[in-house]
Fold this sequence. Notes:
Its cofactor is FAD. The chain is an alpha+beta fold. It has three domains: 33-148, Acyl-CoA dehydrogenase/oxidase, N-terminal domain (Butyryl-Coa Dehydrogenase, subunit A, domain 1, Orthogonal Bundle); 154-257, Beta Barrel (Butyryl-CoA Dehydrogenase, subunit A, domain 2), CATH 2.40.110.10; 261-405, Up-down Bundle (Butyryl-CoA Dehydrogenase, subunit A, domain 3). 48% of the residues lie in helices and 13% in strands. It contains eleven helices and nine strands. The protein has helices at residues 39-55, 60-66, 72-81, 99-112, 114-134, 137-148, 260-294, 306-334, 340-365, 376-388, 393-405; strands at 154-157, 173-177, 180-191, 198-205, 208-215, 221-222, 237-247, 296-297, 300-301. Helix 4 (99-112) packs antiparallel against helix 5 (114-134), helix 7 (260-294) runs antiparallel to helix 8 and helix 9 runs antiparallel to helix 10. The termini are far apart.
Amino acid sequence: MAVERGSSFEGGGRAGRSGGASPSFDPLDPLGLDDLLSDEDRAVRETVRRWAADRVLPNIAEWYERGELPGIRELARELGAIGALGMSLDGYGCAGASAVQYGLACLELEAADSGIRSLVSVQGSLAMYAIHRYGSEAQKREWLPRMAAGEVIGCFGLTEPDHGSDPAGMTTYAKRDGTDWVLTGRKMWITNGSVAGVAVVWARTDEGIRGFVVPTDAPGFSAPEIRHKWSLRASVTSELVLDDVRLPADAVLPEVSGLRGPLSCLSHARYGIVWGSMGAARSCFESALDYARSREQFGRPIGAFQLTQAKLADMAVELHKGILLAHHLGRRMDAGRLRPEQVSFGKLNNVREAIEICRTARTILGANGISLEYPVMRHATNLESVLTYEGTVEMHQLVLGKALTGLDAFR
Length: 411
């Protein structure tokens, strides 16, 4: 039983300046954050929410239990049809949506499951973003329209088996051979890897770190899927193996060299996580709220007990503070004023608080909290991955520490 929007407690408000009655209190939007959204923002949110409700929520528990994401190519085409792939990019078949609209989409997708949001984030904010920002015109025309339509799935190869938080230590190498490039190395924990038609791979060269657009049918490229995960189970995760993969000269991304390229892509993806993590938290909060109002112990609903109400109040405060923070960062991105340190601020806070909300929701549901009949444990385990990918807690703390003190603690 869902909590109905617009339900309220009677009384308790002063009339507004216009003299009208105060708006009713909405338990699902206690700060009235919907007032910050335009009609177009709401339309984008509802489109993604309906798609997730129709295509993901009826199946996600089974997919998670089986540890697979069946029909991923069909799902990608459907996401392309509603404009969710590369949606904040302009041209080449992309929707050109605002940063806030992209964030709202991420929130709704992760409210369904982190694996679905990861599919969209890696496609749009990593692979497509890299090509859109740093690629040649020929690369953009070749790949972006098909990726925006979901006809081609992309992946992003930066992390290596021995180099996660320190990408500067990567050992994947690209050497020149005549006019060609030859890539050798391995990448690890790559979302979409084994179903991708194109990979953006970062490699060390004699000229510094460069990005390469790699068709996955190139000889020497393989992407064995990683199994036995207990998090992001409804997501395709792979290793990339580059065994003397030969590429033409024009496979390199021409507009960037050094770590600035991949790190800017990661910042764009982290922004989506700031919103998405609040989707997982919202799902758990709403599940706990519904359960507290209907589950009876000692002769009354457990939501009538003070300790349960304290938990729900704290969860609501952190959830909606996190959404407000995400909205603020989105407006800054739309204004061209968002800094990477501010994205670290949002990622650090929102994922950390989302996990705590999930854990608190699990205590309210008791034993039912561990059942896949409810979304809580699934979200909690997924967020354990979200906590460490795109930068661990410690890395974002150090980013903020350096920004606050002017002193670099990384080395």
